[in-house]
Amino acid sequence: MELAPLWVKEAREGRNSTRNGLLDPPILEACGDVEGLSVLDCGCGEGRFCRILVERGARYVLGLDSCELMIEAAQELQSGRDEYRLADVQDLSFIDDEAFDLAVSYLNQCDLPDFEANTREVDSS
Fold first, then answer.
1. Using CB atoms within 10 A of its CB, is residue 13 exposed (0-12), middle (13-18) or buried (19+)?
2. What is the DSSP annotation of 22-87?
3. How far is CA 45 from CA 4, 5, 122, in A?
4. Model-level pTM?
5. Distance from the Cα of residue 66 to its chain's centroid
6. Residue-by-residue DSSP string for 79-115
7. Is the pLDDT assigned to residue 29 strictly greater than 70?
8. Domain with 119 in it: what CATH number?
9. Domain range spanning residue 107?
10. Is residue 21 a part of any domain in this protein?
11. What's the pLDDT at 125?
12. What's the number of domains the chain is made of?
């Protein structure tokens, strides 16, 4: 939590060249054409990738994160096609089955005590 303000600043200034230049292209390629899709972002942080998906034509993106400061930061730039909620992505029981066309966990799995729980939750949703 104490690193959240620094991460928000870095993400908003685009200073993470590794993420921008090395990681984004293959993740975006894996997502494919998101035009008109409903997307779930598990571990959205301050919403940077959600906003990218909206820019690429996603109809709706729901970003979930367990850090309240990150969700608050994401909500500051909310566009209307993206929404952000404080949630533990290891338990997605509050989401209706098959509510999303695509689910993304961009560098989130390494921060979860039980990353397999998120994978199981996404598979069953």
1. exposed
2. IIHHHHHHHH---TT-EEEEET-TTSHHHHHHHHTT-SEEEEEES-HHHHHHHHHT--SSEEEEE-
3. 9, 11, 18
4. 0.81
5. 11
6. -SSEEEEE--TT--TTSPTT--SEEE-SS-GGG-TTH
7. yes
8. 3.40.50.150
9. 4-9+33-124
10. no
11. 56
12. 1
